[in-house]
Design brief:
Layout: H1 3-29, H2 34-60, H3 64-102, H4 113-141, H5 148-173, H6 177-204, H7 210-233, H8 240-267
Helix pairs in contact: 1-5, 1-6, 2-5, 2-7, 2-8, 3-4, 3-7, 4-5, 4-6, 4-7, 5-6
């Protein structure tokens, strides 16, 4: 890795940290329009989809083994989020409901507070693992100057919405502001740490592992786009056509950027 790549990786990590902190702090102090947030999220999701399908997957699917790593990346994140943490979340909710029932006759102004508090802790754990995996996958993709700016832009929007959502969950859980801020700061550091860890690991890997790592990254981001972001963008009936338009605009922007990059390379 040369010095410009190192510089870009460092700047990317700092931007991820800053955006994560901003996204987490805003719900604690300011009320934003849910409609406006979803439009921004739709644009970012379109940009991420465009980056995946116009750049990451074409490179990752050049060989049979690389396609296998794409599948491993996608299924790996699915197992962690939808099976391991889903089972843990269900256990937490059942235990919390039982606890609420046992204390139903005690003097408590918020009977459901304990279940919400435990769900907040589970969301923090699950999103933290998710952020670490995204950071690790991002390290492989920042090596390519043709797509890294577009990819970083889309992931910054994702990071903003992710920390915003987590901060909102903390409000629902009734966390004191100081406690929520400490947890949000910790969470904001996780993805940049994953990026740093992935960058160091890439230097240590033997030559030829780049395609495998790129495949894992493509699978990870494919999961993020299709199973995390798309359902969130379109979960409300109102404004779906506007969200769809923003999604298409995001895809089109990446398509134009990639086409311009290809033109510059052929011209050279």
């Amino acid at each position: 890795m040369n010095s410009p790549d190192t510089a870009f990786t460092t700047i990317s990590g700092l931007f991820l940290l800053a955006v994560g902190l901003i996204g987490g702090m805003v719900p604690q102090y300011i009320r934003l329009s849910d409609r406006g947030l979803h439009r921004i999220l739709a644009l970012g999701t379109g940009m991420l989809l465009g980056t995946i399908f116009y750049h990451m997957l074409p490179e990752a699917l050049e060989g049979y083994s690389s396609a296998t790593f794409v599948l491993i990346g996608l299924l790996g994140v699915f197992v962690v989020e939808r099976i391991i943490f889903a089972e843990h979340r269900h256990t937490v909710e059942v235990a919390a409901d039982a606890d609420d029932h046992d204390h139903a006759h005690e003097h408590s102004p918020e009977p459901g507070k304990s279940s919400h508090e435990l769900i907040g802790a589970t969301a923090f754990a699950g999103l933290s693992v998710h952020a670490l995996m995204v950071g690790l996958g991002l390290a492989a993709q920042l090596e390519d100057p043709a797509s890294r700016v577009a990819l970083m832009t889309s992931l910054l929007v994702h990071k903003l919405s992710e920390t915003f959502a987590l901060s909102t969950i903390f409000l629902l859980a009734g966390y004191r502001r100081n406690r929520a801020l400490v947890m949000l700061i910790i969470f904001a550091f996780i993805e940049p740490f994953g990026l740093l860890l992935g960058s160091v690991a890439l230097r240590a890997l033997p030559h030829g592992w780049e395609s495998a790592v790129s495949g894992l990254a493509a699978g990870t981001f494919l999961y993020v786009a299709l199973l995390d972001l798309m359902p969130e963008v379109f979960h409300r009936r109102e404004g779906r056509w506007t969200s769809l338009a923003m999604l298409v605009i995001g895809i089109a922007l990446i398509a134009l950027m990639m086409a311009g990059g290809q033109g510059h390379r052929h011209g050279a």
